[in-house]
Write a structure and sequence with these properties.
With about 290 residues, the chain is mainly beta. It has helices spanning about 30-40, 65-70, 90, 155-160; strands spanning about 1-15, 25-30, 45-50, 50-60, 75-85, 100-105, 130, 145-150, 170-175, 180-185, 195-205, 215, 220-225, 230, 240-245, 255-260, 270, 280-285. The N and C termini lie far apart (about 70 Å).
């Protein structure tokens, strides 16, 4: 006999957070119609660091889920996903859809084995729909809508019946961390570089490398080097980069570490390429 029956849980994960993956930059709020239905049927929403969970005050019914099928048949619960952290759109590969009249539309009608609420491995522009196509999109002031989440309870029951172990059904929202080309600007304050330097990977950064250090044509006494591939933002890195000088006459064999650990970029200073707007850079200025 169960007094509380767990229904489902919605969990948000952002790959930016390597240290505490339970960090969550979003709120999930039921629409008024959903909130009213939940109150009438004694359903409560529990808040967690990574999302929400819905539970039913099922009193002392012997087979609560069988009884709940009658309540759930044909019902869709709708929630709004709102931003709590204004920097989320920088540290993740997401853009706000609202300025273009779109909204991310997430739902549980995908046939994923891992129960994702979006079509691909991560939320993407493919999940954007026009706001006018969402009949229950809230137009009242004060709703900072990032995404609409529709939970079809009939479909949820069908998915639940396929589980080997009957328990709380976990739905996932996964967010990809943003990658940019890292570009180090080396300001030579002591005239010790003269272009005879390079950026070396350390730790697990061997999968990343930087191109040749070049002299800036716009900034005096300044050199720069750009990563050959985009590097993802994280709250903690297992690698770093060092600045080394070398003797050109010795084909670079006499390397001397000038700066052991170069700083990481911040996610609030992203720049777009002048020619290719889709190519993003993170500039890091280092005084040597």
């Amino acid at each position: 006999m169960a007094f509380v029956t767990k229904l489902f849980r919605i969990m948000i994960s952002n790959r930016y957070y390597q240290v505490h993956n339970s960090e969550n930059d979003f709120d999930i709020i039921p629409l008024p119609s959903t909130s009213s239905w939940m109150t009438q049927h004694q359903i409560r929403m529990l808040h967690y660091a990574d999302g929400i969970e819905l539970v039913w005050l099922s009193q002392n019914y012997d087979h609560p889920l069988e009884l709940f099928k009658k309540k759930a048949n044909g019902v869709t619960l709708s929630f709004v996903m709102t931003l709590k952290n204004t920097q989320t759109l920088n540290l993740s590969e997401l853009e706000a859809g609202h300025p273009t009249g779109q909204v991310y539309y997430l739902h549980n009608r995908h046939d994923h084995n891992d129960n994702l609420l979006h079509g691909n491995a991560f939320i993407s522009p493919l999940d954007l729909v026009k706001i006018k196509e969402v009949a229950h999109y809230p137009t009242q002031p004060g709703w900072n809508v990032f995404a609409i989440i529709d939970m079809d309870l009939s479909y949820w029951m069908r998915q639940l019946s396929k589980q080997k172990d009957i328990g709380v059904h976990n739905y996932k929202i996964k967010i990809q961390n943003r990658s940019t080309f890292w570009r180090y600007y080396l300001v030579d304050t002591r005239n010790q570089l003269n272009g005879k330097c390079k950026i070396l990977p350390k730790g697990d950064s061997n999968i990343f490398c930087f191109g040749a250090v070049k002299s800036s044509t716009e900034l005096p006494n300044t050199y720069y080097a750009t990563s050959t591939a985009p590097i993802a933002f994280c709250d903690k890195y297992d690698y770093f980069f060092s600045l080394a000088t070398f003797d050109k006459s010795d084909t670079g064999k006499n390397e001397k570490i000038l700066l052991e650990k170069l700083p990481y970029p911040t996610y609030d200073s992203i720049k777009r390429d002048k020619g290719d707007k889709k190519k993003l850079y993170s500039d890091i200025v280092v005084y040597v």
